[in-house]
Design goal:
By secondary structure, the protein is an alpha/beta fold. Helices cover 30% and strands 27% of the residues. Strands 10-9-8-11-12-13-14 form a seven-stranded mixed β-sheet. The longest helix is centred in the first third of the chain and has 17 residues.
Length: 299
């Protein structure tokens, strides 16, 4: 087996290769004046099992195409088997539509399914519908235990674990169980890609410091709405925010900096180069991915 770390996950891929004591394949990526991209492998991959690690994170379209180009280069160079590790799956939130909208999750899944992968590994996919959209077998990895372990020493006994929407209740209940803390959730309505309205809190939060747990942090609108409604419900401050995928797009850093947040705890499925004014702790997902790769009996 060889590890091939795409441009979206160079450091994460290197960590996985080091943990597994496997070679890390090199490649060159060229961007032509017209915007086209071409990749070329530096190593011989014939008859190898290639584990390609590449998130389809922002810029999503570019990273998605790089994933497909790297997979194509490996197949054309004679790779015997291809495992695609997609730590963050872009377009997963577009898993349903209304009116004349496109179904982005299905389109992205169709493209990746045609990439020649024998198996896919995804970390905390936003929508369970993804597995039904994808043709290759999918192994879903959950980061909740890793994140709970990273959070344990940073929260007190008077904390409460909060899901900022109903969709994350199952994750939050498991997180709360691991930390032996009570759980609550916020009733949320998404108005647009940038606007979120939090309406009420279910669970006892008065006087408790919230640990807000979600699968991703994009613009920060959901976190802001949750903190505002928690404040109205009498929750203590500051809050701790725990996410798997810290996208931090748009004005996320400015939004977080004006909120009463003690720290942000995230994994490295998406590299975070500048978290802004909020202290950030990174819990690497590399051991979880390495264990999933190592666990294959036919590797």
């Amino acid at each position: 087996m060889m590890i091939l770390a795409g441009p979206a996950n160079t450091q994460l891929g290197a960590r996985v290769a080091e943990l597994l004591q496997l070679p890390l394949a090199g490649y060159d990526a060229r961007r032509f004046p017209d915007g086209e991209t071409q990749v070329e492998l530096r190593e011989e991959v014939r008859d190898r099992h290639i584990c390609l690690i590449q998130s389809t994170s922002p810029p999503v379209d570019q990273h998605l195409l790089e994933l497909l180009l790297l997979a194509d280069a490996c197949r054309r160079a004679g790779a015997q088997r291809m495992t695609g590790v997609i730590p963050y799956f872009g377009y997963a939130r577009q898993d349903r539509r209304s009116g004349r909208q496109s179904l982005g999750a299905r389109v992205a899944a169709d493209l990746i399914s045609r990439g020649g992968f024998d198996r896919l590994v995804i970390v905390d996919a936003h929508s369970p519908a993804l597995e039904g959209f994808l043709t290759p077998p999918v192994e879903h990895l959950a980061a909740v235990q890793l994140l709970a372990t990273a959070t344990r020493s940073m929260v007190s006994d008077d904390a409460v674990v909060v899901s900022p929407d109903y969709g994350g209740v199952k994750r939050v209940r498991e997180f709360a169980r691991l930390l032996d803390l009570p759980a609550a959730y916020v009733q949320k309505m998404r108005l647009s890609g940038h606007e979120v309205e939090a309406q009420r809190v279910f669970g006892e939060v008065r006087g408790r410091k919230p640990v807000i747990v979600d699968d991703m942090l994009s613009t920060g609108a959901t976190i802001e709405a949750a903190i505002n409604v928690l404040r109205e419900a009498g929750a203590a401050e500051p809050a701790t925010v725990v996410v798997t995928h810290a996208l931090l797009v748009g004005e996320a850093r400015q939004t977080l900096s004006r909120l009463p947040i003690a720290r942000l705890i995230a994994t490295d499925t998406v590299p975070v180069t500048d978290p802004g004014d909020v202290p950030i702790e990174i819990a690497t997902i590399a051991p979880l991915i390495a264990a999933a790769i190592r666990g294959r009996p036919d590797d």
